[in-house]
């Protein structure tokens, strides 16, 4: 099996090392793992692509490349430049430092990489490690992902629904904020919503007297609806969420036709 991996935390991020081990496990002894990851951190860029200017790409080692672009850019670079002789069988994006559950999914560059792969007709999975007081101080805060990631990927390859007549399905996987020994299992979960949690902007004055704005995230450890991704993560489960790129509110179409048309 040939696997392409990327992330949004950058080519030197420890989560990418975890993903490399997961991918090597899944690919097997005769497989190939190719890395095309951002040269610098690209957190929060969602599905951004940089089509108004070129990006530099550099080969750092065998099957290992860094590109000055977003995760979606890196997937495109992998498909159309790094791997010109054949497409990968699977694209994995992550392992993100921090959860991409609930509303975070809309901002996530990690998910953006998987989304671009799905738009290119490839099986794709985004993987993220929830951060919290029970794992942040561990020698390896990613140990839940490291211990369970390959098994989750194999299950999705064997039993997941891929492709389709319209937008292809891809998967968003979040590992709980706990040690590997405390992971209770896996739950298929809808995307949640942490009500009252949102990004904001805060002003700071630099030593030179200039005014700058920092963007701030909200509290990640609040409840969402029972059975949703954020909630099952906080209860100690790995969440698996099937996703598509269709943003249509299908439940409103008929009502809107009756008033607008």
Automatic annotation (TrEMBL):
<dbReference type="InterPro" id="IPR036523">
    <property type="entry name" value="SurE-like_sf"/>
</dbReference>
<protein>
    <recommendedName>
        <fullName>5'-nucleotidase SurE</fullName>
        <ecNumber>3.1.3.5</ecNumber>
    </recommendedName>
</protein>
<comment type="similarity">
    <text>Belongs to the SurE nucleotidase family.</text>
</comment>
<dbReference type="InterPro" id="IPR002828">
    <property type="entry name" value="SurE-like_Pase/nucleotidase"/>
</dbReference>
<keyword id="KW-0547">Nucleotide-binding</keyword>
<keyword id="KW-0963">Cytoplasm</keyword>
<feature type="binding site">
    <location>
        <position position="96"/>
    </location>
    <ligand>
        <name>a divalent metal cation</name>
    </ligand>
</feature>
<keyword id="KW-0378">Hydrolase</keyword>
<dbReference type="Pfam" id="PF01975">
    <property type="entry name" value="SurE"/>
</dbReference>
<feature type="binding site">
    <location>
        <position position="43"/>
    </location>
    <ligand>
        <name>a divalent metal cation</name>
    </ligand>
</feature>
<dbReference type="InterPro" id="IPR030048">
    <property type="entry name" value="SurE"/>
</dbReference>
<feature type="domain" description="Survival protein SurE-like phosphatase/nucleotidase">
    <location>
        <begin position="3"/>
        <end position="195"/>
    </location>
</feature>
<comment type="function">
    <text>Nucleotidase that shows phosphatase activity on nucleoside 5'-monophosphates.</text>
</comment>
<dbReference type="GO" id="GO:0008254">
    <property type="term" value="F:3'-nucleotidase activity"/>
</dbReference>
<keyword id="KW-0479">Metal-binding</keyword>
<feature type="binding site">
    <location>
        <position position="8"/>
    </location>
    <ligand>
        <name>a divalent metal cation</name>
    </ligand>
</feature>
<feature type="binding site">
    <location>
        <position position="9"/>
    </location>
    <ligand>
        <name>a divalent metal cation</name>
    </ligand>
</feature>
């Amino acid at each position: 099996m040939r696997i392409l991996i990327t992330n949004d935390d950058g080519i030197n991020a420890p989560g990418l090392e975890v993903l490399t081990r997961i991918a090597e496990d899944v690919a097997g002894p005769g497989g190939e793992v190719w890395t095309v990851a951002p040269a610098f951190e690209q957190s929060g860029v969602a599905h951004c692509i940089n089509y108004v200017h070129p990006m530099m790409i550099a080969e750092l080692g065998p099957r290992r490349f860094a590109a000055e672009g977003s995760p979606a850019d890196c997937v495109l670079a992998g498909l159309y430049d790094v791997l010109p002789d054949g497409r990968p069988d699977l694209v994995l994006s992550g392992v993100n430092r921090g959860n991409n559950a609930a509303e975070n999914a809309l901002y996530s560059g990690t998910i953006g990489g998987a989304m671009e792969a799905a738009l290119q007709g490839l099986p794709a999975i985004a993987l993220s490690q929830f951060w919290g007081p029970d794992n942040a101080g561990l020698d390896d805060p990613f140990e839940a992902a490291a211990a369970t990631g390959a098994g989750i990927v194999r299950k999705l390859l064997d039993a997941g629904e891929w492709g389709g007549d319209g937008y292809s399905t891809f998967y968003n996987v979040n590992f709980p904020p706990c040690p590997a020994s405390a992971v209770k299992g896996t739950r298929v979960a809808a995307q949640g919503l942490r009500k009252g949690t949102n990004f904001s902007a805060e002003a700071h004055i630099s030593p030179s007297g200039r005014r700058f704005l920092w963007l701030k995230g909200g509290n990640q450890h609040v409840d969402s609806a029972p059975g949703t991704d954020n909630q099952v993560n906080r209860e100690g489960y790995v969440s698996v969420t099937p996703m598509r790129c269709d943003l249509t509110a299908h439940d409103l179409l008929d009502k809107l036709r009756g008033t607008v048309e």
